[in-house]
Design a protein that fits this description.
heterodimer, A: mainly alpha, 13 helices, B: 11 helices, globular
C-alpha cells in the first residue's frame, strides 16, 4: 500500500488519487500565482483608494521640493548624465502638465529648480538650457512668464560653454521677444556673430532687430531665422507656431477693418459672424492658421483667437504693432 | 601561467552558467531596451537618453557583477571545501587567486560586451527612427557613435579596480562585510576632490590632512567617467585613456598583491 492509500484508509475517505503528486506538480505554482495575483490586486486597490483620498499635500512635487543642485551633483557619483536626463524629463512633465491644466505662473514654480538641477548635473545639456529657457520665458497661462530666469539659465550655459554662439543667439531672442528690448537683443546677436563658427545671418539679424524694433516685421525675421536654422524639431515647431501667431495678428487686423466697415454702414457692431456673412462682408467664418474659428465678442465687436486654438494667447495680448518704424 | 589560465577559464565557464550574471546582464539589456520609451518623454532628447541610460546601465550592472561575484569567489571555494581539493594539486595559492580574478574580469568583459552590443543595436534602431521622425540627434555626435566605446573601456577598467578591491576585501572579511566595504570603497573613490578640499570646511588640521592624504592614495574613480564627454562629442584623447587605464591597472595590481599576501598567510582549515 502506498502512502496516499494508507492515509486515505486511515481517515475513511476515498483515496485522493495522486493528490499530493498533483499538488506538487501544479498546486503550489497555481496557488502562488493566485496569491500573487490577489496581492497585486490588493496593492492596486489600496493605491486607488489612496489616490481617491488625495495626497497629504495634494501635490507630490510642491514648490521648492527640488533638491540643491550641488548636493545632487555630489551624490550622483558616475550617474550624473542619466540623472540630468531624469530631471529634464521631470521638468518637461511639470511644464506640460501645468500648461495643459491651464496653471497660473506660480504653478510653474518648480520649473526653474528642476532645470537648474539638470543643467548642474550635465552642464553641456543643450536642450535643458535652450528649451528650458523657452519654457521659462513663455507667459502665463502657457508658462511661468519668467524671462529673467530664462536669461539666468542661458547665461549659466554660456559660462560653461562660452564657445557656443547658440546661447548668445537665444539670449538675444529672449531680449527681443520677451523683454521687448531690441537694443539688448541686437547686442547679443552681435556678440554671437563674433564667435568662431557662428552663422553669417546673425550679423544682418542684429541689424534687422535694431532697424525694425519691437514689431511684427522684426519678429517675423527672427522666427523665420529660428525655423530655418534650428536642428531641433520641437524648436522648429515652436517657431512655426510663432509665425502662425504673427499671421493671425495680420489676419485680425484685416477682419477689424471689415468690422469697422460694418459699423460705419449700420451704426452698430456685428453680433455674430453670421451677420457679416449675410451682409456679404465675409464669404466664410474666418479661421486662424490652425483652422480654429476666431471669436467675435459682443457687444463691442472685438475679435481674437479662440482659447481652444494652439495659437492662444497671442504675443503682447494681440497688440504687437505691425511696424513700429524708427 | 597555464594553471592561472585554466582556473580563469573554469571561473568564466562557471560564471556563464551563473544565474546572477544572466540576470544582471539581462537587466542591463532591458534597461537599455527601455531607453527609447523613456526618450519619448524627453522632448526630442531620445538619442541622448539612450546613450546616457545605456552607458549608466552598463556601469551599474557591471558594478553589481564586480561586487557580488568578487566577494563570493573565494568565499564559495572555501565554504564548499573545493579549495582543499584544488590546493592538494600542484597549484599555488597565488595562482589560484590570480586565476579566480582573471575569470572574474573575463566574465565582467563578457557582460559589458553583451550590454554594449545591446546599446548599439538600440542606437542603430534609433538612428533609423530619428531620421523618420526628424528628431535631432545629440549635437555634433553621430547617433551610432564608436566613441561611446571609450566610455565602455574606461568603465571596464574602473570595474576591474572595484573587482580587485572586492576580491582583496573578501580575503580578510566575510562576504557581507566585504560587500559593504567594496560599495563604500566605490563611493568614497568618487569623492577625491571633496576629500582634498575638506580643509576648507573642517577645523581639524589632522582630519583635513588625513582626508587629503587618503584622496591621493585611493583611486580617483570619477576620472574613469567619460560618459558625458563622449555623449557630448567632447574630445577624450588616447593619452588620457592610456594614463587613466594605466593608473587603473596599477591599482588592480596593488589590490591583487595585497590579496595574495593575505591569502598566502590565511589559515584555511
Amino acid at each position: 500500500m502506498n502512502e496516499p492509500q494508507a492515509r486515505a484508509g486511515a481517515s475513511g475517505l476515498p483515496p485522493a488519487r495522486g493528490g499530493n503528486e498533483r499538488l506538487r506538480r501544479w498546486g503550489r505554482p497555481a496557488l502562488s500565482a493566485v496569491a500573487a495575483t490577489l496581492l497585486v490586486a490588493l496593492g492596486g486597490t489600496l493605491s486607488a483608494l489612496r489616490d481617491r483620498g488625495g495626497g497629504p499635500d495634494g501635490d507630490r512635487y510642491p514648490a521648492g521640493s527640488a533638491p540643491r543642485p550641488d548636493a545632487v551633483r555630489r551624490v550622483a557619483l558616475s550617474f550624473k548624465a542619466v540623472l540630468a536626463d531624469l530631471y529634464w524629463i521631470r521638468a518637461v512633465q511639470h511644464y506640460g502638465r501645468t500648461r495643459l491644466a491651464g496653471g497660473r505662473a506660480e504653478d510653474h514654480a518648480l520649473l526653474y529648480s528642476l532645470l537648474d538641477v539638470a543643467t548642474t548635473l550635465d552642464p553641456r545639456f543643450d536642450a535643458a538650457h535652450r528649451l528650458g529657457a523657452v519654457f521659462l520665458a513663455e507667459p502665463s497661462p502657457g508658462g511661468p512668464g519668467r524671462p529673467d530666469l530664462a536669461v539666468a539659465l542661458l547665461r549659466k550655459g554660456m559660462d560653461y560653454a562660452p564657445e557656443r554662439w547658440e546661447y548668445l543667439q537665444d539670449l538675444g531672442f529672449v531680449h527681443y521677444w520677451w523683454l521687448h528690448d531690441p537694443e539688448g537683443a541686437a547686442r547679443w546677436f552681435e556678440r554671437a556673430a563674433d564667435l568662431p563658427g557662428a552663422p553669417w545671418w546673425l550679423r544682418p539679424l542684429a541689424a534687422v532687430t535694431l532697424a525694425e524694433g519691437d514689431d511684427r516685421a522684426g519678429a517675423r525675421a527672427l522666427w523665420a531665422q529660428v525655423r530655418d536654422s534650428t536642428g531641433d524639431a520641437w524648436v522648429r515647431g515652436e517657431a512655426i507656431r510663432r509665425l502662425a501667431q504673427l499671421d493671425a495678428l495680420d489676419a485680425l487686423d484685416g477682419y477689424r477693418h471689415v468690422i469697422e466697415g460694418f459699423f460705419e454702414r449700420t451704426g452698430r457692431r456685428p453680433r455674430s459672424w453670421r451677420e457679416l456673412l449675410a451682409a456679404g462682408d465675409l464669404a466664410a467664418v474666418p479661421v486662424d492658421p490652425t483652422g480654429v474659428p476666431y471669436e467675435l465678442t459682443t457687444p463691442d465687436g472685438t475679435i481674437a483667437v479662440s482659447r481652444r486654438s494652439a495659437l492662444f494667447p497671442l504675443p503682447g495680448g494681440g497688440s504687437l504693432p505691425e511696424r513700429r518704424g524708427r | 601561467m597555464s594553471v592561472v589560465a585554466t582556473i580563469a577559464r573554469h571561473v568564466l565557464r562557471d560564471a556563464v552558467r551563473n544565474r546572477v550574471l544572466h540576470g544582471a546582464t539581462l537587466l542591463g539589456v532591458g534597461m537599455i531596451g527601455a531607453a527609447p520609451v523613456a526618450g519619448r518623454l524627453a522632448a526630442g532628447q531620445d538619442v541622448k537618453l539612450v546613450k546616457d541610460l545605456g552607458l549608466a546601465a552598463i556601469e551599474l550592472t557591471g558594478l553589481f557583477v564586480a561586487v557580488f561575484m568578487g566577494i563570493r569567489l573565494l568565499a564559495r571555494e572555501i565554504e564548499h571545501r573545493t579549495l582543499d581539493a584544488v590546493l592538494s594539486k600542484p597549484i599555488r595559492r597565488h595562482q589560484f587567486v590570480l586565476g579566480q580574478f582573471g575569470g572574474l574580469v573575463a566574465a565582467l568583459a563578457l557582460a559589458l560586451a553583451v550590454m554594449a552590443i545591446g546599446m548599439y543595436v538600440v542606437l542603430a534602431a534609433a538612428a533609423w527612427w530619428v531620421e523618420d521622425t526628424v528628431l535631432a540627434p545629440a549635437p555634433a555626435a553621430p547617433v551610432v557613435d564608436p566613441a561611446l566605446l571609450k566610455a565602455v573601456v574606461l568603465t571596464f577598467v574602473q570595474l576591474a579596480v572595484v573587482a580587485a578591491a572586492a576580491l582583496c576585501f573578501s580575503t580578510v572579511a566575510s562576504p557581507a562585510v566585504a560587500a559593504a566595504s567594496t560599495c563604500g570603497f566605490y563611493v568614497i573613490c568618487h569623492f577625491g576632490g571633496e576629500l582634498r578640499n575638506l580643509g576648507s570646511v573642517v577645523d581639524s588640521r589632522f582630519a583635513a590632512s588625513l582626508a587629503a592624504g587618503l584622496s591621493y592614495v585611493l583611486p580617483d574613480l570619477a576620472s574613469f567617467d567619460v560618459k558625458a564627454a563622449v555623449v557630448h562629442a567632447q574630445p577624450v584623447t588616447v593619452g588620457y585613456m592610456a594614463l587613466t587605464a594605466g593608473s587603473g591597472a596599477a591599482y588592480v595590481l596593488a589590490f591583487l598583491v595585497l590579496a595574495l599576501a593575505v591569502f598566502a598567510k590565511r589559515d584555511l582549515t
